């Protein structure tokens, strides 16, 4: 690299910074979402259904009644954890797409903790042990890709994808050959006793006058919200977070500052894997009360979209995960109410949201920058605190 | 054939009339009127933040002016994007090149102008055109060389070729000599003169007054967003230009007392570094710096200076040799790292602030503690004490006159000179025993250069040992108490500050040493 870095000139880069926060973090994502829904509407129109009707069902199904809200929040809990996992790695400049596998193996930790304890202790003893086990197992599954990236330069995207497959094979083998109770043909553990059932939030909903019905939303939601706060503190308020961001933005400057990118890569991936692992708590101890094959069901991948849409910020991730929770729950209602819109069409709509919110996030930005420039002509926006020369 | 008389010259090649541009509260360009004659070399000088880059970005279509118009050859044009600018015959060579390194010269020149979906015809055409351009302007570039293998000077010529290939009549060069050796810069100027003689118009943005004097026909001085004067170069002096730029009288020479060196603070013995490919980057380097002394290292870029700084600062591990700091041995071949070196009083202002010295995506206050973020003053257990960090940053911004004085602003939004001050402030503030300084004034304006030089002298007088690496021989000669010359990874000579530029230049070129041609292109900066 003989001094010729292919980088945009400073001026071109400076242009990015010219939107105030409320447009950057609120208006722009909403515009992306709107575009996604417009295109989805065309798809619905194409199969001969009324898109407004579909939106109504989707909204009502996800937010219109207690049970719907319960399911929405249950799914959102999964996505929040995996979204945070992706975000932490992202701040260190790592693209961890192994959340799926890390959550899967994290589930093994949850399952083992639950099987060991559920007959002897109440849930609130099993609960912290299960959280710790999920974190340790998830982190362990991220360790080898992290080490390979840090020490050998094997690209983390490739290794984490491969580890998703390995996790899948490992879990099938364990569930079929070792964890299935004698005499059962189902590739799943025995059903846990009450000592490994996490409390559902029906009581809390009742206080708000909502009937939760069969919705499995449980206290893992609070774990996820606490994780949002902790990730915020970690990334922006601790020395470790400072070092993670330094490595993510500029590894050369990090080495100059005496920060070891090797150490940060491994630590960030361990935290990422731990967060993904904790996601397993929600379906295993909160819904199914047993460890099943393929319980993650794509939540690890949705986490990538959630982190992108949420701009790797915990507040954004919380909001984006609720949105995706709505799409999951509302989509299920939609497929049920309008048979012409099949389950696969819902996946198409979710894909469109991911496309517009994640992959095409810069599509509307230049327009907004121009529009905002015209709007503020002759006025000094409060954001511009620069003075003089 | 060179400068045409004013009367015989109808409309100017470029005319800016009443250009005005604000970014929020910052008035970057105020009512700029500028005429640039066809077939001239026009210099634009000004401090960083004076609005030169903004003005050129408007001309090149990165920004649109709030008011005013651009006329080319007398006709009003509307430039909304760089594409429009290229179509209007304007080409730009950036400070940071935009080249695809694994591609050949020919492929780079064609990039974006391939002429159809099948390459073959376009390649043949481009080759013919490239050869014609090279002949006309003596650019001396092999069309089939891989760009990544070429020295910086040649890469820059490819950028010029790219612009000419796209039919540029006016060429804008932004700080083109920042990365060049004196010989490469001279070659560049020859090319620019040749371009002018063939009727092209050249706009040269620079902060080096010597270059302005050497190559331009006319020069415009910018200050605080305005053009304060446009002068014929032949009728002005560097002192006059410096005064116009800064708005007050500037001392171009560094005033300093004789050094009064104390005990040896940095002692380097037989330092050798072989890189991963087995190439010797540092070859048996030995020297010492005493307290209260500035030792300058002169040399063509890529002869081991960067590696020397990186080894002593703990970023890179040496293959063999010893380093003592204030008498204490440091394990430079093994355990030491950058944070250990800092803890024993070795501070480092790296050569490239963007690549190494700063995380430009950080807020200013976060960069103000980079490398010292494990200091207890900024920590509260595992937590960063944000208030302490920002307080400290604010104080330092005031002390070092870093503008704008907003410690929450992203570092990439500061000008080059102010970014350099952020790094210098951070490293000097530690009162290190040994200060390693690489290119302290690269891409920095005159006012800031003066300030930085004074700070370095003040540190020396306070008893610090300073190792100064710079491509600017003037800077080395005016600041150093002793000068070491590096070539091919070895120290090939030591001279006093009174050594002539020619004498140093010969040593730098390795006369009697290894072949300079072999080292000029190879090692990365």
* Arithmetic mean pLDDT of chain B: 86
Strand content of chain B: 15-25%
Radius of gyration of chain A, CA atoms, in whole angstroms:
23 Å
Shape of chain A: globular
- What's the mean pLDDT score of chain A? 87
Largest interface: A-B, 48 and 74 residues
CATH superfamily of the largest domain in chain B, by name, is P-loop containing nucleotide triphosphate hydrolases
Quaternary form: heterodimer
Structural class of chain B: alpha/beta
Low-confidence sequence ranges of chain A:
1-17, 378-389
Percent in helix of chain A:
over 70%
Low-confidence stretches of chain B: 1-7, 512-525
- The CATH class designation of the largest domain in chain B is Alpha Beta
Walkthrough of the structure:
- Chain A: Its main location: membrane.
- Chain A: Keywords: Cell membrane, Membrane, Transmembrane, Transmembrane helix.
- Chain A: This is ABC transporter permease.
- The complex is a heterodimer of chains A (389) and B (525).
- With 389 residues, chain A is mainly α.
- Helix content of chain A is 70%, strand content 0%.
- Chain A has 17 helices and no strands.
- Chain A is globular.
- The two termini of chain A are 34 Å apart.
- Chain B is α/β, with parallel strands linked by helices.
- Chain B folds into 3 domains: 14-246, P-loop containing nucleotide triphosphate hydrolases (Rossmann fold, 3-Layer(aba) Sandwich); 251-345 and 432-525, P-loop containing nucleotide triphosphate hydrolases (Rossmann fold, 3-Layer(aba) Sandwich); 359-430, no CATH class.
- Helices cover 33% and strands 25% of the residues of chain B.
- Chain B is built from 18 helices and 22 strands.
- Chain B has helices at 52-59, 82-87, 105-110, 119-137, 152-165, 182-197, 209-215, 238-246, 305-312, 338-343, 353-357, 364-367, 386-399, 416-428, 446-461, 473-479, 501-508, 516-520, and strands at residues 14-23, 26-36, 41-46, 67-72, 75-77, 90-93, 170-174, 201-205, 218-223, 226-232, 264-274, 280-290, 293-298, 320-325, 328-330, 346-349, 379-380, 383-384, 434-438, 465-469, 482-487, 490-495.
- In chain B, the strands form 5 sheets. In chain B, strands 6-7-8-3-9-10 form a 6-stranded mixed beta sheet, with helices on both faces. In chain B, strands 16-19-20-13-21-22 form a 6-stranded mixed beta sheet, sandwiched between helices.
- In chain B, helix 15 (446-461) links the parallel strand 19 (434-438) and strand 20 (465-469).
- Chain B is globular and about 70 Å long.
- Chains A and B meet through helix 1, helix 10 and helix 11 of A and helix 1, helix 10, helix 11 and strand 18 of B.
């Amino acid at each position: 690299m003989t001094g010729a870095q292919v980088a945009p000139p400073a001026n071109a880069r400076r242009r990015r910074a010219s939107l105030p926060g409320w447009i950057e973090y609120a208006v722009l994502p909403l515009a992306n979402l709107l575009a996604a829904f417009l295109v989805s509407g065309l798809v619905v129109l194409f199969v001969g259904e009324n898109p407004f009707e579909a939106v109504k069902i989707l909204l009502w199904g996800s937010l219109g009644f207690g049970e719907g809200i319960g399911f929405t929040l249950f799914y959102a809990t999964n996505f929040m954890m995996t979204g945070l996992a992706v975000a932490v790695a992202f701040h260190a400049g790592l693209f961890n797409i192994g959340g799926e596998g890390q959550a899967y193996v994290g589930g093994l930790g949850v399952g083992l903790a639950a099987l060991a304890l559920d007959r002897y202790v109440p849930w609130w003893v099993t609960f912290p042990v299960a959280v710790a086990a999920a974190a340790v197992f998830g982190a362990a599954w991220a360790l080898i890709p992290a080490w390979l990236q840090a020490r050998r330069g094997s690209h983390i995207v490739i290794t984490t994808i491969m580890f998703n497959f390995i996790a899948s094979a490992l879990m099938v083998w364990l569930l079929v050959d070792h964890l299935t109770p004698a005499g059962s043909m189902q590739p799943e553990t025995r059903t846990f006793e009450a000592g490994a059932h996490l409390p559902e939030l029906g009581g809390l909903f009742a206080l708000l006058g909502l009937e939760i019905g069969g919705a499995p939303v449980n206290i893992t939601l609070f774990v996820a919200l606490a994780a949002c706060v902790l990730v915020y503190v970690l990334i922006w308020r601790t020395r470790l977070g400072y070092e993670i961001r330094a490595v993510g933005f500029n590894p050369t400057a990090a080495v100059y500052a005496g920060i070891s990118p090797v150490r940060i890569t491994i630590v960030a991936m361990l935290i990422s894997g731990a967060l993904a692992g904790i996601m397993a708590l929600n379906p295993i101890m909160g819904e199914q009360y047993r460890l099943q094959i393929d319980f993650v069901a794509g939540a690890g991948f949705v986490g990538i979209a959630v982190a992108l849409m949420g701009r790797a910020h915990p507040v954004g991730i919380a909001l984006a995960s609720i949105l995706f929770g709505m799409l999951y729950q509302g989509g299920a209602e939609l497929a049920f109410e309008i048979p012409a819109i099949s389950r696969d069409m819902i996946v198409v709509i979710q894909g469109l949201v991911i496309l517009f919110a994640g992959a095409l996030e810069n599509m509307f930005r230049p327009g907004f920058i121009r529009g905002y420039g015209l709007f503020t002509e002759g006025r000094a926006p409060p954001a511009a605190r620069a003075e003089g020369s | 054939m060179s400068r045409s008389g004013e009367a015989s010259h109808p409309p100017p090649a470029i005319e800016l009339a009443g250009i005005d541009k604000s970014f929020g509260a910052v008035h970057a360009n105020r009512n700029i009127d500028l005429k640039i004659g066809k077939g001239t070399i026009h210099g634009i000088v000004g401090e960083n933040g004076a609005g030169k880059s903004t003005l050129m970005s408007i001309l090149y279509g990165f920004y649109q002016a709030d008011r005013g118009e651009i006329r080319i050859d007398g006709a009003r044009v509307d430039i909304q994007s760089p594409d429009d600018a290229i179509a209007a015959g304007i080409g730009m060579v950036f400070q940071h090149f935009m080249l695809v390194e694994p591609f050949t010269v020919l492929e780079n020149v064609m990039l974006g102008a391939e002429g159809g979906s099948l390459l073959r015809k376009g390649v043949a055409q481009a080759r013919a055109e490239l050869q014609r351009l090279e002949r006309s302007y003596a650019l001396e570039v092999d069309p089939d060389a891989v760009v990544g293998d070429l020295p910086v000077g040649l890469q820059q010529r490819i950028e010029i070729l790219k612009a000419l290939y796209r039919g540029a009549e006016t060429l804008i060069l932004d700080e083109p000599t920042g990365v060049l050796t004196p010989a490469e810069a001279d070659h560049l100027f020859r090319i620019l003169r040749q371009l002018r003689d063939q009727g092209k118009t050249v706009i040269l943005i620079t902060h080096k007054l010597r270059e302005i004097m050497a190559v331009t026909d006319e020069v415009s001085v910018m200050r605080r967003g305005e053009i304060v004067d446009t002068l014929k170069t032949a009728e002005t002096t560097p002192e006059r230009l410096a005064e116009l730029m800064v708005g007050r009288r500037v001392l171009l020479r560094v005033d300093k007392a004789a050094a009064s060196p104390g005990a040896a603070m940095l002692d380097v013995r037989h330092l050798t570094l072989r890189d991963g490919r087995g190439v010797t980057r540092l070859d048996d380097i030995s020297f010492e710096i005493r307290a209260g002394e500035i030792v300058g290292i002169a040399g063509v870029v890529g002869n081991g200076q960067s590696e020397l700084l990186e080894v002593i600062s703990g970023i890179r591990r040496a293959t063999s040799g010893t380093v003592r700091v204030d008498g204490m041995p440091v394990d430079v071949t093994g355990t030491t790292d950058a944070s250990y070196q800092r803890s024993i009083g070795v501070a480092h202002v790296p050569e490239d602030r963007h690549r190494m010295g700063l995380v430009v995506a950080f807020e200013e206050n976060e960069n103000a503690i980079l490398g010292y973020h494990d200091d207890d003053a900024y920590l509260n257990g595992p937590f960063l004490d944000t208030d302490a960090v920002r307080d400290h940053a604010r104080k330092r911004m005031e002390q070092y006159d870093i503008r704008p004085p907003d410690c929450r602003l992203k570092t990439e939004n500061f000008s080059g000179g102010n970014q350099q001050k952020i790094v210098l402030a951070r490293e000097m503030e530690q009162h290190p025993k040994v200060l390693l300084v690489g290119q302290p004034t690269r891409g920095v304006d005159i006012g800031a250069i003066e300030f930085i030089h004074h700070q370095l002298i003040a540190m020396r007088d306070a008893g610090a040992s300073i190792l100064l690496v710079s491509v600017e021989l003037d800077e080395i000669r005016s600041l150093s108490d002793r000068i070491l010359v590096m070539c091919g990874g070895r120290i090939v000579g030591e001279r006093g500050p009174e050594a002539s530029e020619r004498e140093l230049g010969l040593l730098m070129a390795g006369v009697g040493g290894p072949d300079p041609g072999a080292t000029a292109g190879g090692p990365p900066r």
